[in-house]
C-alpha cells in the first residue's frame, strides 16, 4: 500500500545536480576548448621554461595551457570592454586609461606553480593584444634572513608571517593603479636570502602574473578590527595548482635529489653542506623540512585558499593535469 505522504523516489534525489560555484571539466573536455588557437612554443622553449623535476611537454602545453591562454585572452578583452563602458558612463570626469590585468598563481612548494606561471607568461605575451607580460614571485617579499632570525621565524619560512605582506600588497596595488614604474626586492635561491641592493623594476605591463604560496590568502584584520584590502583583491583571475599531498611530497624529495646534484654544488649555495654528507642524511633533512615546515604550511595556509581561485588545476601523480574546475560567473 502506498502512503499518501510518501517521499520522492531515491532516483529523483540522485538526478538533482549538486550546487557548486565551479564547472568541472575533464582533461579532454578542457583540451577541446583551445579551438584553433595555434601553439606558439617549441619543445626547446618548453624545456627551458619547466622547473626541475616538473614533467611538462608540448602535449601538456597544447591540452592544458593553450586553452587557458585563450580563456585569459578573452578575459583581458572583456575587461577592456567593461572599462570602455564605465568610461562612457562616467564621462570626462571619471574617464580612466587601461590598467594591467593581474593574475595570481598559487599552490604548494614543489607542485609546479612556477612552471605554470612561466608558461602563462610565454603564451600570453604571444597574443598581439597584450605583448608586455611581467612575472613577479612573492619570494622577493620574504623578510631578509637577519629579520627572520631576529623574529624566530627561520623555521617558518614560507608561512604568511615570514613575508612583508604590506609591501607586497602595496607593490601590486601600485601596478594595478597604473603607476609608470614600480620596484620589488630580489630573492636568490642560491644564497637563500634577499639580495642587498638589487631591485626588480616593472614598467606598466599589459598583464602582471604574481606567483607564490600564499597569494590567495584573505587580508588579516587590522589592529582596529577593520578588514583590510588583501593581495588577492587586486587579482582579475587566479589559478590554484592542486595535487594530492603524498604526490607533492614525492615531487619535493625528487627535486631535492636533483638540486643536490646540480645547484647545491655551487660553492656559494646555502645548501652546499647537503652535498658533503651521504644522500640518506641529506634526504633525512629534506623529509624533516617537509614534515615540519612545508606540509603544515600547505595544510594550514595554502590549501584552504583553493576555493578562492578562479581556476583549479588538479594534477595526477605524473604531474599531468587530470581535471579542472572553473569558477562560474
From TrEMBL:
Coiled coil: none
NCBIfam families: panK_bact
InterPro entries assigned: P-loop_NTPase, PanK, PRK/URK
Positions of ATP binding: 107-114
Domain Phosphoribulokinase/uridine kinase: 102-254
Catalytic reactions on record: (R)-pantothenate + ATP = (R)-4'-phosphopantothenate + ADP + H(+)
EC nos: 2.7.1.33
Principal location listed in the UniProt entry: cytoplasm
Gene name as annotated: coaA
Protein name, entry field: Pantothenate kinase
Example GO biological process: coenzyme A biosynthetic process
UniProt-listed SUPFAM superfamilies: P-loop containing nucleoside triphosphate hydrolases
Cellular component terms (Gene Ontology): cytoplasm
Short name of any one Pfam family annotated for the protein: PRK
Family: Belongs to the prokaryotic pantothenate kinase family.
Species in which this protein is naturally found: Streptomyces himalayensis subsp. aureolus
HAMAP family: Pantothen_kinase_1
Pathway: Cofactor biosynthesis; coenzyme A biosynthesis; CoA from (R)-pantothenate: step 1/5
Record-level Gene Ontology MF annotations: ATP binding; pantothenate kinase activity
Keywords noted in UniProt: ATP-binding, Coenzyme A biosynthesis, Cytoplasm, Kinase, Nucleotide-binding, Transferase
Amino acid at each position: 500500500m502506498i502512503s499518501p505522504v510518501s517521499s520522492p523516489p531515491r532516483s529523483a534525489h540522485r538526478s538533482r545536480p549538486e550546487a557548486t560555484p565551479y564547472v568541472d571539466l575533464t582533461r579532454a573536455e578542457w583540451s577541446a576548448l583551445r579551438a584553433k588557437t595555434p601553439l606558439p612554443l617549441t619543445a626547446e622553449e618548453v624545456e627551458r621554461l619547466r622547473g626541475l623535476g616538473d614533467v611538462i611537454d608540448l602535449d601538456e602545453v597544447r591540452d592544458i595551457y593553450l586553452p587557458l591562454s585563450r580563456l585569459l585572452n578573452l578575459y583581458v578583452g572583456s575587461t577592456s570592454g567593461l572599462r570602455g563602458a564605465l568610461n562612457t558612463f562616467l564621462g570626462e570626469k571619471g574617464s580612466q586609461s587601461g590598467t594591467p590585468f593581474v593574475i595570481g598563481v598559487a599552490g604548494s612548494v614543489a607542485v609546479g606553480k612556477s612552471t605554470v606561471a612561466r608558461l602563462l607568461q610565454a603564451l600570453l605575451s604571444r597574443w598581439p593584444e597584450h605583448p608586455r607580460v611581467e612575472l613577479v614571485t612573492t619570494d622577493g617579499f620574504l623578510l631578509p634572513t637577519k629579520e627572520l632570525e631576529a623574529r624566530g621565524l627561520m623555521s617558518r619560512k614560507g608561512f604568511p608571517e615570514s613575508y612583508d605582506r604590506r609591501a607586497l600588497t602595496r607593490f601590486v596595488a601600485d601596478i594595478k593603479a597604473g603607476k609608470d614604474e614600480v620596484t620589488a626586492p630580489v630573492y636568490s635561491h642560491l644564497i637563500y636570502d634577499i639580495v642587498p641592493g638589487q631591485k626588480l623594476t616593472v614598467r606598466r605591463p599589459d598583464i602582471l602574473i604574481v606567483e607564490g604560496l600564499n597569494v590567495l590568502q584573505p587580508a588579516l584584520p587590522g589592529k582596529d578590527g577593520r578588514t583590510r584590502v588583501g593581495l588577492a583583491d587586486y587579482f582579475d583571475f587566479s589559478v590554484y595548482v592542486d595535487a594530492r599531498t603524498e604526490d607533492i611530497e614525492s615531487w619535493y624529495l625528487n627535486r631535492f635529489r636533483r638540486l643536490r646534484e646540480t645547484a647545491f654544488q655551487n660553492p656559494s649555495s646555502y645548501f652546499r653542506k647537503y652535498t658533503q654528507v651521504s644522500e640518506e642524511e641529506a634526504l633525512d633533512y629534506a623529509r624533516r623540512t617537509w614534515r615540519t615546515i612545508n606540509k603544515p604550511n600547505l595544510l594550514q595556509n595554502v590549501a584552504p585558499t583553493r576555493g578562492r581561485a578562479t581556476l583549479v588545476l588538479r594534477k595526477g601523480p605524473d604531474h599531468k593535469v587530470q581535471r579542472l574546475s572553473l569558477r562560474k560567473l
